[in-house]
Amino acid sequence: MTARRSPRIVVIGAGIAGITTAHVLQEAGFTDFTVYEKGDDVGGVWHWNHYPGLTCDVPSQLYQFGFAPKPDWPKIWASGPEIQRYHRDVVERLGLSDRIRLNAEVVSSVFDDATGRWTVTLADGETVDADFVVCATGVLHNPSIPDIPGLHSFAGPVVHTARWDDDVRTSGQRIAVIGTGSTGVQVVSALQPEARELLHFTRTPQWILWAPMSLPQLPFADTVLAASPRLHHALYRGLLWGSGILADIVRKDTWRRRAVQAYARLSLRAQVRDSDLRADLTPDYQPLCKRQVVSGTYYRAITAGNADLVTESITEVRPEGIVTADGRLHEVDVIILATGFRAHDYMRPMTVVGRGGLTIDEAWRDGPRAYRMTAIPGFPNLFTVLGPNSPTGSISLQYTAEKTARYLAQWFDLFRNGEVDRIEVTEEATAEFNAQVAAASETTVWKTGGCDSWYLTESGAVDLWPFDRATLSRMLARPDRSHFRLGADEPLGDSAAL
Ligand code: NAP
Asked: Beta strands 484-486 and 307-310: pairing type?
């Protein structure tokens, strides 16, 4: 057995997954790790996304790190800036700042078959050697820019919500918003009151659950929760348990699912009286099929005198505005693209080269796939946190990130103790896991609800977690050595066959 050694670990990304990983590694006594973050701040999607009206539709007492509970959220559903402040506070409070290098974009990670180590290269040319690479690079990171003819010819500003430009003037302007997901709905609600005219271009309407999104946290809740960490922990666990109902609803066609779906239909019927507009706003698929949109203000905004829903498809953009299939030119001053993300482009545009020169693009030719969200055959000693099949649609992401990071820490500990060198998941274990995912996905509303969404890969596979939280915790409880090839002496095999 080799002597105790200190693994050098590179973590890529300082969003929810990266902050969690850094905390867990620090807590587990790992001393040689650095988080590289390409942005100039921590927070990941909460740093990059700062469009007007940005809110989180998951209650803040749940949408937080289990290891860093915050008693004094001002509102039940926090705004983007409040969440971003929280991330900064957590990093500082837990002493992680010195571990994180901002403005440090990783452009490539290459595995060396001979040494069993990774060479990580930053955009400025600096290289770092590492025993392990943890990709905490996020899901909703790369903005999806629609390929609309003439978009670049538009005379005014064109801004994607995920890269909002604070200098863009929207007040008193004629605004076009393209996209009807959670983002489009939030940005329309926020900009309509001050706009001269707001046109919402809707390719596919979404079901929108009504909720009072601006409700403050209960009076004195902050004082009570701060005074009693045990009570605060119990509340967090209670919410975590309660959110299990959501996992159940999306996975099984029960009365609970049907009740939520009925509520979505009622939300529309009760708020939109005009039958033509209501017809235009009515989706032709089941509620919950796409990522459910929640809003207390959208229907009010879209029925306001200065707002219009445009359901004709967009054919081109001209310097003065947007042309729709009926030949009409909609003159606008600003175009806002709320068109979402390339959600399956995990780690991209980074180059990742594993064993035998296998690239991540080759390994994922048919779409992203990993073992239990974290390990990829052909890529020894590389892991993802919130990687493929992460439960973006059902279970707390902070919880999942922490479970995954603690799972990884166990592998790193085995390395530290000299019990393992190379850790590479087998193709068989990965295929078995993905077969389980495919089978469990069959009954999910994401698959049966009759819609297309970013939850599905191009091949139609569900890139989400189709199991419950107990299964997630069990699968990540401890490393199953039989699913991995361990040590440098293991036969390397033929990566082309992976
Ligand atoms: P999204 O849900 O992927 O929605 C993108 C929208 O853009 C869809 O309505 C889509 O229409 C439309 N679109 C895309 N390309 C288009 C084109 N060429 N022409 C016309 N329309 C086009 O993106 P998102 O709203 O940014 O949300 C992404 C995810 O971020 C959410 O699902 C959620 O997980 C997260 N999010 C969460 C919150 C929160 O409160 N927690 C807030 C914002 C975002 P089709 O449906 O026809 O494709």
From this structure: unpaired
Average pLDDT of the residues in 5-17: 97
Closest approach atom of ligand 1 to CA 203: 47
Domain-embedded: residue 3: no
- Measured by CA distance, the residue closest to atom 37 of ligand 1 is 182
DSSP code, position 74: S
Is there a single domain that holds both residue 228 and residue 286? yes
Domain boundary among 304, 337, 370: 337
Please tell me whether residues 314 and 425 are part of one structural domain.
no
- How many domains is the chain partitioned into structurally? 2
459-481 pLDDT, tens digit per residue, is: 889 999 999 999 999 999 999 99
| Tens of pLDDT, residues 420-449 | 999 999 999 999 999 999 999 999 999 999
Mean pLDDT computed over 363-387: 97
Question: Residue 68 in contact with residue 90, Cβ under 8 Å?
Answer: yes
Residue the block writes with tokens 């219009």? 308
Is the per-residue pLDDT at 495 higher than 50?
A: no
> Is position 348 within any domain?
yes
Q: Give 97 or 495, the one with higher predicted confidence.
A: 97
The answer to whether the CB of 390 is under 6 A from ligand 1 is no
CA distance 440 to 468: 10
Q: What spacing in Å lies between the alpha carbon of 290 and ligand 1's midpoint?
A: 9
Residue at a domain's end among 276, 302, 337: 337
Predicted model pTM? 0.95
Strands 329-331 and 321-324: antiparallel
What torsion, rounded to 10 degrees, do the Cα atoms 368, 374, 377, 378 define? 90
Q: Please give the distance, rounded to the nearest whole angstrom, from the Cα atom of residue 453 to the centre of ligand 1.
A: 9
Residue 332 sits in the same domain as residue 349 = no
Please check whether residues 433 and 380 belong to one and the same domain. yes
What CATH number corresponds to the domain at position 50? 3.50.50.60
CB 366 within 8 A of CB 383: no
Evaluate: CB of 140 within 6 angstroms of ligand 1. yes
